[in-house]
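Fold tokens
===========
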Amino acid sequence: MLVTQQPVFRKFWHPVMPLSQLAAGTPQPFTLLGEAIVLWLGADGEPRALKDRCCHRTAKLSKGRCIDGALQCGYHGWTYDGTGRVIRIPQYDEGREIPAGYCTPAYRCQAAYGYAWVALEEPLAPIPEMPEFGAPGWRTIFQFHEVWATSPVRALENSFDNSHFSFVHRATFGVAAQPKPSRYELVEQDGGSGGFYAETVIAATNPPAFHRVSGSSEPITQRHMRNAYYLPFARRLDIEYPSGVRHVILNGFTPIDDGHIQLCQWLFRNDTEADCPAQMLIDFDHVITREDKDILESTDPDAVVDLRRRGVEFSMDSDRPGILIRKQLMELLAAHGEAEVHR
């Protein structure tokens, strides 16, 4: 599937960048579903998003600067408000009216959970909830926002795939002697919003370097994994160790173009900095995600979503979550009059 060719994905919120990246007051470029956009903070401190293209001579607005909450083009100084309308042309005499048609497209942009989220069209669903964010007894660690040369479908199915642990992650938590994956219990969500819940228990290698992460000194520990999928490209993984430590990850697999995503990863923990330092947790998950990134970037990002296309990819029993992801994506496309677009 070529995500930029499927208009329905424009109708969802996607995490684009940490608000801290906008705090310096410099406009920031980003590509979302093949669309070049620019983000900045308005005078009220809330993020704004426009097409990264001045309506005068098409210069990138991200080459400009922020002035009093507005965005000034770096080419001729035309200045835009958050709705995309030109509010000042320095070359005009004071009081001269600016035609209403002098504007560039604006996109829905919202601050949530420390990030700027963007929907290119009216969103069909809210931003996924993160109940641990700011909740008593929980700490939030902003782990990653980085570009991967893969597609959201590949990253999603990998995040529900138990059968790669003994191979891709054999140097970290995978148990090489147990290649047969544990079975997920899958429950599709009701209410028409899509998504599903998947639960399983796996064995995980727990070397001394991981003891503070798991809260256990056992050489092999258990991970009670509660994994949830949110249409179209987000998931939540709640890992609970026998020690009672919970390691909750929220991933947004933001589609940049047909061959790249931005991985956004939040981590929530019910322990303290003294129990396990944030940097240790960042380093722990960084090593694991490097293993995933390396193998995923070797796959074809044009993943088969319509399973009626035979002979391109083949599946096995443990691919049930990935097949369910595809089924729900196909239902989403069909509900909006679309078919899978692929090479």
Q: What stands out?
A: DSSP finds five helices and 17 strands in the chain.
